[in-house]
Amino acid sequence: MRKMFYQLIFLLIFQLNAFTQSFFEGTWQGVIEQSGMTNPKPLAFWIEFNIEESTNVINGTSRNEIPFTDNYALKSFQGKVKSANQLFFEEVMLGNEKNEGNNFWCLINAELTYNDSTGYLKGRFTSKDCRAYSGEITLFKSKYQMSQGDTISKYHSWVTNFQNDLKRGWNAYYVRAKDMRDFEIKPVYFDHDKAVVSDEFNAYLKQMVSVVQSHSDLRIKIIGHTDSNGSNNYNIQLSEKRANRVEKILEGYGMPPDRVIIEYRGETDPIAANNTALGKKLNRRVDFEFD
């Protein structure tokens, strides 16, 4: 029995190590920002982690690029995975470079921690050969290949876009994509002949704003509905009031008006039969669609 217990523990540790290695393995991209600068200009930073399965030792190549120039430096590094979400690396040798100006490529070392909530690998760096050079690195898992030559890895507008994402408090693109996939769209319901949104929907609507704001190309369509009580013209007006009321709440939570589309259909698009009280209750609603 004890033998089986130890075998199980060993298997769990092995699987954890395998997950850690496969997760960190590959290319990451992001920015290096130096501390103590009035108007810091970040460096584009790329790094490829190769992890030795049996020891968790890391080696590979990193790349600095000065945004919107052809200047770059390739460096070799070594390090170690310290835990399931933490690693250390140290650049040890300068390789190929292109340097037009007075730039000096410093070798750095850093301890980085992965945050499950944000999707970023982040931490402080220092330098042994440039003692005044220190600051912060923020990385995300890349979909692209790191260039090994004079060609830039990716057009540098991504650096500006990434900095804007960080200023907005946005998570990494794959975390945002998961948040959107996991977000459950559901109606907001109304009392008979009313356009007042119950407080019970506030948290849901606030989360909706967060999802839409974190995708620059995403809009939300708000569609107002009613039950069959009243005339068609009256119900069109009531469904418009309901849609507009929801829009105001979303804007109050920070939704830009140009990210919202309004439709109102009155009683013409029921989700249930209007011959029961429950059916009418389900039809007094605002629906949503991502656009």
Short synopsis of the structure:
The chain has helices spanning 2-24, 157-168, 173-182, 202-213, 232-252, 277-283, and strands at residues 26-34, 43-51, 57-65, 72-83, 86-98, 108-114, 121-127, 135-141, 188-189, 220-224, 260-264, 285-290. With 291 residues, the protein is of the alpha+beta class.
CATH topology (level 3) name of the largest domain: Lipocalin
Count of beta strands: 12
Q: State the major sheet.
A: 8 strands, antiparallel, barrel
Could you spell the SSE succession in H and E letters? HEEEEEEEEHHEHEHEHE
Low-confidence stretches: 4-20
Strand content: 25-35%
Number of discrete helical segments: 6
Overall tally of domains: 2
Overall body shape: elongated
CATH class of the largest domain: Mainly Beta
Which structural class should the secondary elements be placed in?
Answer: alpha+beta
Mean pLDDT: 90
- Estimate percent helicity: 25-40%
Q: Kindly report the name of the CATH homologous superfamily of the largest domain.
A: Quinohemoprotein amine dehydrogenase alpha subunit, domain 2
For the CA atoms, what is the radius of gyration?
27 Å
Main location: membrane
Pfam families: OmpA
Domain OmpA-like: 181-291
Signal peptide: 1-18
Spell out the blueprint of helices and strands.
Elements: H1 2-24, E1 26-34, E2 43-51, E3 57-65, E4 72-83, E5 86-98, E6 108-114, E7 121-127, E8 135-141, H2 157-168, H3 173-182, E9 188-189, H4 202-213, E10 220-224, H5 232-252, E11 260-264, H6 277-283, E12 285-290
Parallel strand pairs: 10-11
Antiparallel strand pairs: 1-2, 1-8, 2-3, 3-4, 4-5, 5-6, 6-7, 7-8, 9-12, 10-12
Helix pairs in contact: 4-5
